[in-house]
Every structure is written in C-alpha cells, then in structure tokens.
Write a structure and sequence with these properties.
By secondary structure, the chain is of the alpha+beta class. It is built from five helices and three strands, in the order ααβααββα. The N and C termini lie close together (about 10 Å).
Length: about 100
Amino acid sequence: MKELLRLMKVMSNPVRVRIIASLEREPKHIYALAKELKLSYPLVHLYLESLENAGLVAGLLSAGEVDERERKTYHVLPFELVLTPALLTKLEENANE
C-alpha cells in the first residue's frame, strides 16, 4: 500500500509526467530536459531523482556529444500502472493484517 501511495504521489506532479513523456520520445540528459521544459537544472535533477527512486526512469553514463565528459542520459523504464477498485481493496486488506 505504501509503495502504491508513493508512486501515485510521484505521478501526481504534472512536471514529472511531462518528463516521462519527453523521455519516452527520446532519452535525454538533464541539460536538454531543463532547456526543453524551461526549468532550472537543479529542479529537473530533483524531479529525475524522485522518478528514478520510484523505478520509473533510469540514468546511464555516456560521453557527451560536444566533449568527452560523461553525462547521465535518462530513459523511461517499462512500467504499466493499472489501478482498479478491487486492487485497492486487496491492498487495504493486506495493510490491515
């Protein structure tokens, strides 16, 4: 139950949803996402960190296009979220045991 609530909290933020949509189209590094979303690097980093902790995105180190510095390129991990009243009832019952 706690895991579901944590996931729902992460997905309740529209910026995080926009990040997932952007990364679904094409993997990107933080700088590209920040520019695309018109947000600061630190803010995008925080959003990516929460998405990564939730298991929705992952970052891979790769050499930069312009220079050889390594940068983390983020991509969406496969996931499917199916929420039904029956699932919620089952989770609630298991939480009370």
